[in-house]
Design goal:
alpha+beta; 3 helices; globular; 157 residues; seven-stranded antiparallel beta sheet
Length: 157
């Protein structure tokens, strides 16, 4: 059995929730904001199922940095998108990802959207040893921050 972990980061995007939601709900848009899309310029991508929403699927295979795996959107509401994430390389892992979209109703950011990107799973094997030195939050958190900043730029652009 692995050791459970969770990582979450948030950002306020000056765009309505529907605009930001659409950028997450269609995996084809991830190439514009995901922090991992530029790790391998020749990464292979395959899309299956519907173009967006529940059961949309994305498979990638890239170099050592990009690794390989699949994502599948499992549930979509106006305020959240749930995704199952399965890594094959660089190490096998099963993760649950959730994006939430909360309209900002007060203050200077009124009309904007607070976006939270969270992921939970379990670390085992070599990763369990590695995360004793550097926890998952420190490993993945900066990538989430970069991805959210790029999502913000794309949504506000």
């Amino acid at each position: 059995m692995g050791k459970p972990y969770s990582v979450a980061r948030s950002i306020v995007v000056r765009a309505d929730a529907a605009r930001v939601h659409a950028l997450v709900n269609d995996f084809r848009h991830w190439t514009t904001w995901s922090p991992w899309e530029d790790l391998d310029p020749s990464m292979e991508r395959t899309y299956r199922g519907p173009e967006s929403g529940t059961d949309a699927q994305y498979e990638w295979s890239g170099n050592k940095q990009a690794g390989s795996g699949t994502m599948r959107i499992t549930n979509v509401t106006d305020d959240a998108i749930a995704i199952d994430l399965h890594f094959v390389k660089p190490f096998p892992a099963e993760n649950r990802v959730l994006f939430s979209f909360v309209p900002v109703t007060e203050g200077d950011d009124r009309g904007a959207t607070k976006v939270t990107w969270s992921m939970e799973g379990e670390v085992s094997g070599v990763m369990r040893v590695f995360t004793k030195i550097r926890p998952m939050d420190a490993l993945i958190g900066p990538d989430f921050e970069r991805g959210l900043a790029q999502l913000k730029a794309e949504a506000e652009g």
